[in-house]
């Protein structure tokens, strides 16, 4: 059902490994220079970069498992390994943000700003971080869109948050060097709030997927209209949507003409599925249910109305004196409005059977609604006898 190529997994691993190398280099450099150059904001930014490194490891593990093919135990695939990893990544960012905010507030209250002016070199490192993280953001996002990976997109935004936080750090250090030393700690606090916001957003989006939240309303309405655009579909109901990683899963009920064959109904469903896939390329699985009536307003009668085997037994007994069962060429049962409509095709030798007597013999049946007779004789087939 879900197709996952090795090339996609390799592309995800490649960009993540490159990002890991960059995060390790920038993180260590910012912490070292920040400590040496008296910049709390740069140290906070360095810790943020190292959290990116941890998220890179998480991405590598999650994409390894999440991009595996579906199997007997996981018939819908393993994409939610990536979703779970995205949730963990969001929680990690929130935790990092809390630690950064605590440290920044503590230093705002206790620090001697006159003795702790940041060195000018810290400004250069902040600028280098902006350039490096913005580059890896664009690279990662390009790959994420190509392979449709929400986890990789989340990691790209993690890198973008590091770039933005470096911008704030750059401004904070510059302000401190210009005579506002407290601005460095304020910048660290702003970074913490930015990281927390991104982490909360990632975690919430993952929770929505894990609890099978529906697609946005505009997408649901579009799916509804596309299904109705197939002329043979009379009504659409019971539409349910959810996501499994990058893939869309949907269930849909299609109301069709009451008297068509099972195979025609199935073919209509296939045509609807093709129509939806042409407009939503991320659809991974469609389960369609063919209805002969709008059954959401009708109580379930599955345990009340008899099935074909019992119907044949009752008809054989009721018509024992009127009709030989071998004279029936075809029997169709239509379950409509809590009753059963009989559509019977008789062989030529039964042409003299009185349809009124057949109908009267069934009047005591609670399940009986109507009887339509047709004949194999060519001249009679065009004029069905309905009683």
TrEMBL record:
The record's keywords, sorted A to Z, are: Ion transport, Iron, Iron transport, Membrane, Transmembrane, Transmembrane helix, Transport, Zinc, Zinc transport
Q: Where in the cell is it found?
A: Membrane
- Any one Gene Ontology BP term: zinc ion transport
**What positions does the domain Cation efflux protein cytoplasmic occupy?**
215-292
Instruction: Say where the protein is mainly found.
Output: membrane
In what way does this protein cross or attach to the membrane? Multi-pass membrane protein
* Family membership: Belongs to the cation diffusion facilitator (CDF) transporter (TC 2.A.4) family. FieF subfamily.
Q: State the name under which the record lists this protein.
A: Cation diffusion facilitator family transporter
Origin species: Allopseudospirillum japonicum
């Amino acid at each position: 059902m879900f197709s996952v190529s090795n090339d996609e997994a390799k592309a995800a691993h490649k960009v993540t490994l490159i990002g890991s190398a960059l995060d390790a280099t920038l993180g260590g450099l910012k912490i070292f220079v920040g400590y040496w150059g008296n910049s709390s904001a740069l140290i906070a930014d360095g810790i943020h970069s190292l959290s990116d490194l941890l998220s890179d490891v998480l991405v590598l593990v999650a994409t390894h498992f999440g991009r595996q093919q579906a199997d007997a135990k996981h018939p819908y695939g393993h994409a939610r390994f990536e979703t779970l990893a995205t949730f963990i990544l969001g929680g990690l960012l929130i935790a990092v943000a809390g630690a950064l905010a605590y440290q920044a507030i503590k230093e705002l209250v206790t620090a001697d700003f006159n003795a702790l002016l940041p060195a000018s070199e810290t400004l250069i490192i902040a600028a280098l971080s902006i350039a490096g993280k913005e580059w890896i953001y664009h690279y990662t996002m390009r790959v994420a869109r190509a392979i449709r990976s929400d986890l990789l997109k989340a990691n790209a935004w993690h890198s973008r948050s590091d770039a933005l936080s470096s911008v704030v750090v750059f401004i904070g250090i510059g302000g401190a060097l210009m005579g506002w030393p407290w601005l460095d700690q304020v910048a660290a606090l702003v970074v913490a709030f930015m990281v927390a916001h991104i982490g909360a957003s990632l975690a919430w989006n993952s929770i929505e997927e894990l609890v099978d939240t529906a697609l946005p309303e505009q997408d649901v309405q579009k799916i509804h209209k596309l299904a109705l655009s197939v002329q043979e579909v009379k009504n659409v109901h019971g539409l349910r949507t959810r996501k499994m990683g990058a893939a869309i899963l949907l269930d849909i009920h299609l109301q069709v003409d009451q008297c068509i064959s099972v195979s025609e109904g199935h073919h209509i469903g296939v045509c609807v599925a093709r129509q939806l896939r042409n407009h939503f390329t991320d659809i991974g699985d469609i389960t369609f249910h063919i209805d002969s009536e709008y059954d959401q307003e009708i109580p379930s009668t599955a345990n009340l109305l008899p099935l074909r085997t019992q119907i044949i037994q009752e008809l054989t007994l009721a018509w024992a004196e009127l009709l030989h069962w071998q004279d029936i060429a075809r029997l169709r049962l239509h379950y409509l409005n809590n009753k059963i409509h009989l559509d019977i095709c008789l062989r030529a030798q039964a042409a003299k059977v009185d349809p009124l007597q057949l109908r009267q013999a069934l009047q005591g049946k609670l399940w009986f609604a109507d009887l339509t007779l047709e004949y194999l004789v060519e001249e009679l087939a065009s004029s069905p006898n309905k009683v």
